[in-house]
Amino acid sequence: MNPRIHVVIITTVITAMVIGVSIWYLYSSVNPQIIKENFENGFGEWVSDADVPLDPNNPGHAVAWNITRSTDVASSGQYSLKLFIDGTQDDGTIWIERKIAVRKNALIHVNISFDFFSMQESFNTIAVICAYAGIRNPEVEESFGVIGSANEVAGWKRYSLTATIDTGSSEEIWVALGISVRWETCMLYYIDNVEVEVK
């Protein structure tokens, strides 16, 4: 092949790639990425995680907790997520999390909103609702920000967290939401209709 043609082909390919990346960058800057999940067909890309204490009544084991799909109550469709934790040690945080692909070296805005269900209203803070958005996978209670008391109302109430993230060299962010124990008792709550907007 003629060397001159070879150079033209390489230049054309590189130019096309640059234009493609530029268009994607502009599009994603103007058009927010919206992720919705109502748990009708499983967890989607969400997974459960926890930072809980050991159970003194069951040496070598953590206190009981689980996050499962349930038809007990739902704000959208027939399913929601049921969050249970044995809070008798007055400690423990459980949550769902997922990662989202983003542009690196960008300042992005994230809004997490979801419906939260409590069986009863209480002036006592039995648990708090917590959420997280950042470039690291949250692994401990301290990663989370408190966005409300879990027993503000009996029934459903919508909560949200807004964050601005400098992605740096990372091409993904993590978002998470859940509950953190504040009272020495077993507790049960529900989450549904989760929406994450990234722009």
Beta-strand share of residues: over 45%
Specify the overall morphology: globular
The average pLDDT is 90
Number of helices: 1
What does this structure look like?
The protein is mainly β and 199 residues long. It folds into two domains: 1-31; 33-198, Jelly Rolls (Sandwich), CATH 2.60.120. It contains one helix and eleven strands, in the order αβββββββββββ. The termini are far apart. The model is unreliable at 16-29 (pLDDT under 50).
Write out key terms for the chains shown.
single chain; 199 residues; mainly beta; Jelly Rolls; 2 domains; five-stranded antiparallel sheet; 1 helix; 11 strands; 46% strand
What is the topological layout?
Layout: H1 3-30, E1 33-37, E2 47-51, E3 65-70, E4 80-86, E5 93-101, E6 107-118, E7 127-134, E8 145-149, E9 155-166, E10 172-181, E11 186-198
Antiparallel strand pairs: 1-11, 2-5, 3-4, 4-11, 5-10, 6-9, 6-11, 7-8, 7-10
Summary of the model, kept short:
Helices cover 14% and strands 46% of the residues. It is mainly beta.
